[in-house]
Input
Amino acid sequence: MERIRIDATRCYDVIIGGGVLSQIGKLTASLVKGRRCAVVSDDTTHELFFEDVRRLLEASGFSVADFVIPHGEESKNAENYLKLLEFLADENLTRADCVIALGGGVVGDLTGFAAASFLRGISFIQIPTTLLAAVDSSVGGKTAINLRAGKNLAGAFYQPSLVLCDTEIIKSLPPEIFSDGMAEVIKYGVLGNWHILDLCHMGAYEHLEELIAECIRIKRDIVAQDEFDLGIRQLLNLGHTPAHAIEKLSNFKISHGHAVAIGMCHMARAAEHLLLCAAGIAAEIEELCRKYSLPTECIYNTEELALYAMSDKKRSSGKITLVFPFVRGKSELHTFDVSELRSIFEKGFLPSIPEMF
Output
């Protein structure tokens, strides 16, 4: 079992290991004064895990209410956000009580934003049930919902009180859901730690706890320097500018992880052709994506990508900051005029440059 401390406006632990979900009752009791909990899940995670979580919480003296949304990115919307706020009010939760997000990134983002808003802030706990949520969205305090104009455009920086990553749950994921999370794992290797890439080559299932811990340590260190995403934290957006456009263009039929995989490959190829990245990096990203059944090519054209990327949160006036791989295990931020975005995306459609020995 690994325990990683996150230092932010609210400090908290991320606990990683097989069977750690069994500790949810006593851990929650040690963190909050009240004895009311609202567990938010989607219809899939509710069926699989809610009864166990309720039993464990009730054994520690909690009264438990449950709020369920349909699974899928479409549920991360303003309607469900308001419904959840009304639900918390109807259940008479107070600032002494807490909300628990039981699910993937959609559940965690929605729950976190509601927790940040309700009573101007109520404690919440993340129980990520997907690899993608475990290594990325559950840690760092970004909470949000989607608007018609784009993804994650309304939200708040609001840190959880605890993150509980049960590797037994994550290992039980269907292969396509596990692969979706591997896109974010590969991202962390590309931007900050080549050892993660080596573990990915060796096999993620066999090194899962170490992979999750390594990813979270990278995010911990970045969040400690830039909690509110004003500078270095933007490195975590590697591949995400095209990825968010791809998700929107597909009406979210292309999952976040698949879109990030495509986005990373395209940005790495573009970086090589712009001479901002060592040759061979794009080829390794493509190889790892294929190893974990992730796509590497975009079905949309550069004009479509550039149009939807105009609503990206990283755009400021006429500028946009993009993340490019630099060398193995290191990435860099580069700022461009938004007028250059289409040309940059076009270079991502070119073949990767082979490494010369």
About this structure: The longest strand covers residues 319-327. The two ends are 41 Å apart (CA to CA). The chain has a mean pLDDT of 95.
